[in-house]
Amino acid sequence: MVSGPGRAGTGDPARLGVSYLAASTAGGTGRHVAMLAGGCAARGATVHVYGPATTGPAPAGPVPRPGWQFTELDIAGRPRPARDVAAVLRLRRLLARDRPDVLHAHGLRAGALAALALAMPGTRHIALAVTVHNAPPTAGPAAAVYAGLELIVARRADAVLTVSGDLDGRLRRRGARLAGRALVPAPAAASASPAEIAVLRRELAGDERGERAIVAGIGRLAAQKGFGTLIQAAARWQRCPVVPLLLIAGEGPLDTELHRQAAAAGVAVRFLGPRRDVPALLAAADVVVVPSIWEGQPLIVQETLRAGRPLVATRAGGIAELTGDDAALLVPPGDPGALAAAVARLLDDPAAAARLAAAARARAALLPSETAAVDQVLSLYQRVRSPRIGQP
């Protein structure tokens, strides 16, 4: 979703107490929660955050910003009755201690457990907001479980935010009180200098002149991200007169499997592991590829648009809402042929790549900012807590 400048009415944050609950920090969820917590605390709200030990902007663990407090609360990655009951009871105790006006849960599991904690007898009135960040499974036993979680969230939450239009439709059909599209902005990052980019290109490509074409994929090495499809697409490039270099940066559960897949397909891939220089890596790439099976508002898409790089991405989840129809070449998810053809088109046509890069820069100016995201949630909190002001 894109957003223009401007500030929503946020009432008086200094009189507001907010608690955040995250079941997982995978992807950008932990960073998003930390951003909202820090932003609301900076406006004067009293803020507490509950979640896994890794909640926060640093991979080593939680890093509280001034004004907000973190308390570890373990929530199982999948339904585990005993652990879920323990999590609900612990959450209820934390809410009794911190007495927030609003509890903002992130993810379906967090939202459902929050709803159960707030429904327990004797619990004081606390408004519940839920942001749904990911698409649930659509097949197998897990699909029925997540359908149940959706129903709990839809029926119990005072407001539901979603990160893409397809999730909006799912929750609307469940009867949720939808509050609009969540704003999930990528953090601002410094640009790499031309000299730094030139050095990095030579280093990555093993090319003294840095002239070999570079195709980059960046993200968590998990099934949702579609890197297997990217490797299948790269196998088709092996027949090109000039074979581009494929770089995949990131870590995750499919690391070993993707290495094996690339070796079996005869694809020369440089697996870079986790990188701290993503802006420079994006700037060094001739084409950036986001081959995801599903996404909400992926940070890497936003970062690529801001970097003004030619982007090939799948038309999945909320990606098209970020890019529009002219700031990326969009292909169906899981289609290696279409992915390969789109990348080849940009490598073979520098003018088309330049037009796409210019469109990306223009689109980036419309992306939501952290200020807009904090404005949005503060306005929401004031609305959902209003009927409860003055109640015990």
The overall pLDDT average reads 89
Total number of beta strands: 13
Gyration radius, rounded:
22 Å
**Arrangement of strands in the largest sheet:** 3-2-1-4-5-6-7
**Number of helical stretches of at least 4 residues:** 14
Q: Which stretches of 5+ consecutive residues score pLDDT under 50?
A: 4-9, 56-64, 388-392
What number of structural domains do the residues give? 2
Q: Span between N and C termini?
A: 37 Å
- Residue share in β-strands: 15-25%
Helix content: 40-55%
> What gross morphology would you assign?
elongated
Sheet of most strands: 7 strands, parallel
Q: What is the CATH level 1 assignment of the largest domain?
A: Alpha Beta
Order of helices and strands: EHEEHEHEHEHEHEHEHEHEHEHEHHH
| CATH fold label of the largest domain | Rossmann fold
**In the CATH hierarchy, what is the architecture of the largest domain at level 2?**
3-Layer(aba) Sandwich
Structural class: alpha/beta
Could you name the CATH homologous superfamily of the largest domain? Glycogen Phosphorylase B
